[in-house]
Amino acid sequence: MNFSRIGVGCFLATYAVVFCLEWLRLAGRSQINRALILLGGGIGLATHTAYLVIRSNTTQQLPLLSSSQDWLLVLAWLAVVSYMFLTALDRDLAVGIFLLPIVLVLTSSTYFVSDTTNRRLDSLYGWKMLHAALLVLGMLGVLVGFVLSMMYLVQQRRLKHHHLTPTGLGLPNLEKLARLNRWAIMIAVPLLTGGMGIGVGLGLYAKSNQESIPFNDPVIIGSTIGWLFMFALFVWLMTTPRTTGRQVASLTLWAAGFLMFTLIGLQVATGKKIFELKTWHVQAPVPQHLWLARHAR
Fold first, then answer.
1. Which residues lie closer than 8 Å to 154 by C-beta, 6 or more apart?
2. Of 119, 120, 170, 225, which sits 20 to 30 A from 205 (CA to CA)?
3. What is the distance of C-alpha 118 from the center of its chain?
């Protein structure tokens, strides 16, 4: 394979095929189907990884800092790694039914967001990296919480109405799902808070320089509102002695879903100029001689 010609469509199509294979599992367990799922997921993940490496070499930036497109692809990559690990660990766990649609949405949305390398605040490279890393890990926790919440509500509904369990649809018990969901929120929110706090610090620092970052950026505003919902959920979990698994799952579903929707939606809206929204997350390309002159000072 000529890896220089790898595009997002290569691994996106592979993930779509794996998702279809996951649905076929509902008809019954099959060693062949499981082998195809692991093979397809492995091929998709390898191609995905190669694409990120090529992008990093091309832009001379780590994917987390290169562009909005690459940041979303890193988030999707982490989700696929989690999926592959869980699928290999437990042959009966049907996590792909819930997780792969999110991976497909994240990957598909990269066609509509900016792929322009953003070199603002390169003088604070380490802080930028920590900011982006905390946010992507926090969002992975939010994504995991969202998936666990869906699994909890589906499992509870099946048990409540005494529905027959499809042979290939294995889900953990309610107690385990509730415990994991709680841990996902308890880990994700501090990571998001740390990432956003560093982002505020970077913005304040930039005010004293020529690389000003406006705090009325729609992506920042939308993400902040979504974070507030998640933080309120975090505080509620910390201060409420008795919470039911269904309460936690329902609130997580709403809060996490809103945060993911606003984050992806605003990136799409600002990335390709669908709406006239100005954002510092999208930067026009800087001619190389001007960029070198700026950073040679």
1. 171
2. 225
3. 19
Specify whether 275 is located in the same domain as 180.
yes
Helix residue ranges per DSSP H, 90-241: 96-109, 125-160, 174-206, 218-239
Output the six-digit token pair for 102: 């999110």
> Which of 165, 265, 171 lies closest to 219 in space, CA to CA?
265
Give the 3-state secondary structure of residue 71: helix
Q: Which residue range(s) make up the domain with 169?
A: 122-285
Strand partners, 126: none
3-state secondary structure at position 111: coil
Q: Average the pLDDT over each of 167-171, 198-202, 248-252, 277-281 and give the range with the smallest value.
A: 277-281
Examine residue 297 and state whether it is found in any structural domain, yes or no: no
Same domain, 110 and 127: no
Least confident of 17-26, 46-55, 58-67: 58-67
Contact by Cβ (8 Å): 190, 135? no
